[in-house]
Amino acid sequence: MGENGGDTTGQTSTGQTSIGQTSTGQTSIGQTSTGRATGASHPKGSLAGHLVWRLSLKWRVAVDRAVAPLGLTHATYVFVSSLHALRRAGARPNQRELAEATGLEALYVSKLARSLEADGLIVRVRDTADTRAFRLDLTERGEQAVREAISVVQALLDELLAPLGGTAGEGAAAFAAQLDVLLAVRAGAAGAEL
């Protein structure tokens, strides 16, 4: 027990800093054996949210670095790889449909589309059924870039999931199933999907 009556953060037998509970019900997180902070003080139960945020940030930064030599960012990778997958499935999505498929905001997809078109990776063609909409397609250069990027990101994913048994391991499958559960939750007062 700590001075204030709560549990304290202490070191485990493996050298990892443990997580303690304060008397106010907040979770206090210390450092790992590598000296990296694992978080700050969080209201009880919010550690999972903090860890999801940290993992998503770690993933975005890692993808940004991995695809930068190909002239892409995490956001543009999400755009072109999703467009590639939709095209392989026989769809020719417009910007709104791609926004729905990726979870990106429609205005952001529009901005990315203009940028990727200027870079010669995609083409936007007016939809004959709805002249306000643009249908999207990859250029030959875009196809080449996305194939290389998918390979690079797959290797990164293999590395990230290695502690869970690799991408084909049961741990990774269970982790993906839990993430699907969280993504299906409608959050916030307005019930907006995550």
UniProtKB/TrEMBL annotation:
Residues 1-43 are annotated as: Disordered. Keywords: DNA-binding, Transcription, Transcription regulation. Residues 45-184 form the HTH marR-type domain. Residues 9-35 have a biased composition (Low complexity). It comes from the Bacteria. One of its GO terms (biological process) is response to stress. One of its GO terms (molecular function) is DNA binding. Coiled coil: none annotated. InterPro entries: HTH_MarR-typ (IPR000835), MarR/SlyA-like (IPR039422), WH-like_DNA-bd_sf (IPR036388), WH_DNA-bd_sf (IPR036390). The keyword Membrane does not apply. Pfam families: MarR_2. This is DNA-binding transcriptional regulator, MarR family.
